[in-house]
């Protein structure tokens, strides 16, 4: 049997493929998990579904959307009830469409209805001098305006819930012919809407608690779940295993109790016959069934983005789990910062308002000192910087514990320096690795060198900085600082809004630091977008 981009086709589609297709044709692959995409060879029977390379257009064109396992063992996952668009399908889109085509006869396109919180990145192609593209709430309020091709990020945090966002072509300007392509929020993942989306495999091999089993998922929950992520059986009580159930019917549980379920890791999660993420679990008395049902149960559905699911016919060793984790990090580097923080969801009334938890779970939290926890010195809930933490530039400081950065690193984040009255030798600093100073005429940035600064005139923020000298501006224009020096490693704290006894004012939303990783531009964009989807713990 022949497959297109690992999606298996019916006979009519196969005939078209042979006659017309300029596409690559893939053949089945065999073996213990080695499908040729870097996944490690593991002992025993391995089943894996990998959702990278799929498109909503591709899936919507199929009468029976389904995907064979990555090794070509004939284990098909059929997808039920997906819209193949928005937040029900491939990638996940906060907007009403993925691509918007403009012409001199087209005025506006509705981007999103009833928006309250929205952040997304898009690319404009085809604009010429005199063109204008704007994002408006109806025709009254202009949120953004663009006049040239580029990659841009929209960050509209507070709108009337009944408001409608529209992209306008040349409003009071020359109308142009160009394309706006929206970047997905969860590239490479399949997004389940939590309403009725599910996947079913009718011929999944029976896994037993007596022999042992392992299920590994790379996933991110988008909302509180009311079902299982995965269970293996014909019904909830006829299952070899249940993985990440949202409640705790432990009288017949093969899985976890609610106290463990409520402290889920952000991304990679695993379960064997006797442990869940290294927590001991009880073994139930359920009868094994003969199906794999994902994101569906008698209790409801899950709103979740899934990049990969891996199943082994035995309890994985620590070495096997490490190999799987290493593959995930290599394949999806933007998902695995070593340090990361976000203030989204925090308020000045929170009991833990003086702490910004490290969302990687490593415990290296940011601690806030001297903030008044009010507008202008705390979490802003209104105005231009609603959703940001703002430091006052007088005595506010934000500090992490000491950590190590090696010579290779990438830092990605959403923040902005506020206009100072005089040059400030402070801003965002990781001693010896990165200095970002807030000056009257812009930013001074030093990469791995405390004495040589790269000056960015009339710039108040950047999206990403790499230790090889690449700096990405807010429109993802790449500039190079060729003066950076090689530093083997730096050990020390991250300080925000202060250095020594010098304070400055800035608005801070999130920051991710990738140690030993120099991300490509494409991965920097994915990392930036991923950070916008996260909330503070």
What secondary-structure arrangement, pairings included, does this model have?
Blueprint: E1 3-4, E2 7-8, H1 11-20, E3 25-26, E4 46-50, H2 56-60, E5 66-68, E6 76-80, E7 89-90, E8 99-102, E9 108-113, E10 118-125, E11 133-137, E12 141-146, E13 150-156, E14 164-169, E15 178-182, E16 190-193, E17 198-201, E18 214-221, E19 230-235, E20 238-243, H3 258-261, E21 268-272, E22 275-276, E23 279-280, E24 292-294, E25 303-312, H4 318-331, E26 339-342, E27 355-356, E28 366-369, E29 378-379, E30 389-390, E31 397-399, E32 403-406, E33 409-417, E34 424-430, E35 434-439, E36 442-447, E37 454-457, E38 464-466, E39 470-472, E40 478-480, E41 489-492, E42 494-496, E43 498-499, E44 502-503, E45 506-515, H5 521-532
Antiparallel strand pairs: 1-2, 1-3, 4-25, 5-6, 6-17, 7-16, 8-15, 9-14, 10-13, 10-15, 11-12, 11-14, 16-25, 17-24, 18-21, 18-25, 19-20, 19-24, 22-23, 26-45, 27-28, 28-31, 29-30, 30-45, 31-42, 32-41, 33-38, 33-45, 34-35, 34-42, 35-36, 36-37, 38-39, 39-40, 43-44
How would you describe this protein?
The chain has 537 residues and is mostly beta strands. The chain is built from five helices and 45 strands. The strands form ten sheets. Strands 26, 29, 30, 33, 38, 39, 40 and 45 form an eight-stranded antiparallel β-sheet that branches. An eight-stranded antiparallel β-sheet has the order 27-28-31-42-34-35-36-37, with no helix packed on it. Strands 4, 7, 16, 18, 21 and 25 form a six-stranded antiparallel β-sheet that branches. A hairpin with a 2-residue loop joins strand 43 and strand 44.
């Amino acid at each position: 049997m022949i497959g297109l981009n690992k999606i298996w086709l019916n006979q009519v589609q196969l005939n078209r493929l042979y006659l017309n297709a300029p596409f690559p044709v893939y053949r089945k692959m065999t073996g213990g998990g080695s499908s040729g995409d870097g996944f490690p060879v593991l002992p025993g029977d391995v089943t894996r579904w990998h959702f990278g390379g799929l498109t909503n257009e591709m899936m919507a064109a199929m009468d029976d959307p389904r995907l064979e396992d990555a090794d070509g063992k004939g284990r098909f996952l059929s997808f039920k009830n997906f819209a193949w668009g928005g937040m029900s399908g491939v990638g996940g889109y906060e907007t009403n469409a993925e691509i918007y085509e403009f012409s001199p006869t087209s005025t506006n396109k509705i981007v999103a209805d009833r928006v309250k919180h929205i952040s997304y990145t898009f690319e404009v192609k085809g604009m010429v001098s005199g063109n204008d593209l704007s994002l408006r709430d109806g025709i009254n309020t202009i949120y953004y305006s663009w006049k040239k091709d580029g990659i841009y990020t929209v960050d509209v945090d507070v709108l009337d819930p009944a408001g409608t966002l529209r992209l306008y072509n040349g409003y009071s300007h020359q109308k142009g012919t160009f394309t706006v392509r929206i970047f997905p929020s969860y590239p490479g993942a399949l997004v389940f809407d939590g309403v009725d989306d599910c996947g079913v495999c009718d011929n999944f091999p029976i896994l037993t608690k007596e022999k042992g089993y392992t299920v590994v998922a790379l996933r991110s929950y988008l909302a509180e779940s009311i079902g299982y992520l995965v269970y293996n059986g014909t019904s909830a009580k006829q299952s070899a295993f249940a993985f990440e159930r949202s409640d705790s019917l432990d009288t017949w549980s093969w899985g976890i109790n609610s106290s463990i379920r409520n402290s889920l890791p952000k991304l990679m999660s695993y379960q064997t016959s006797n442990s869940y993420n290294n927590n001991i679990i009880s073994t139930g008395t359920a009868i094994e069934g003969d199906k794999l049902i994902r994101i569906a149960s008698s209790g409801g559905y899950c709103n979740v983005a899934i990049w990969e699911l891996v199943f082994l016919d035995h309890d994985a060793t620590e070495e096997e789990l490490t190999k799987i984790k290493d593959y995930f990090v290599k394949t999806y580097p933007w998902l695995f910062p070593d340090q990361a923080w976000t203030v989204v969801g925090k308020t000045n009334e929170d009991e833990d308002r003086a702490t910004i938890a490290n969302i990687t779970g490593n415990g290296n939290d940011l601690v806030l000192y001297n903030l008044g926890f009010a507008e202008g010195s705390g979490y802003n809930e209104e105005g231009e910087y609603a959703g940001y933490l703002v430091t006052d530039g007088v005595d506010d400081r934000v500090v992490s514990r000491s950590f190590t950065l090696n010579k290779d690193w990438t830092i990605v984040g959403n923040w902005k320096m506020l206009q100072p009255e005089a040059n400030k030798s402070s801003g965002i600093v990781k001693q010896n690795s990165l200095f970002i100073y807030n000056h009257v005429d812009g930013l001074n940035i030093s990469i791995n060198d405390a004495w040589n600064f790269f000056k960015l005139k009339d710039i108040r923020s950047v999206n990403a900085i790499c230790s090889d000298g690449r700096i990405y501006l807010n429109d993802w224009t790449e500039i190079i600082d060729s003066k950076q020096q090689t530093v083997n490693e730096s050990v020390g704290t991250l300080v925000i809004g202060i250095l020594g006894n010098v304070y400055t004012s800035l608005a801070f939303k999130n920051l991710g630091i990738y140690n030993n990783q120099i991300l490509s531009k494409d991965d920097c964009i994915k990392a930036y977008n991923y950070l916008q989807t996260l909330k503070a713990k």
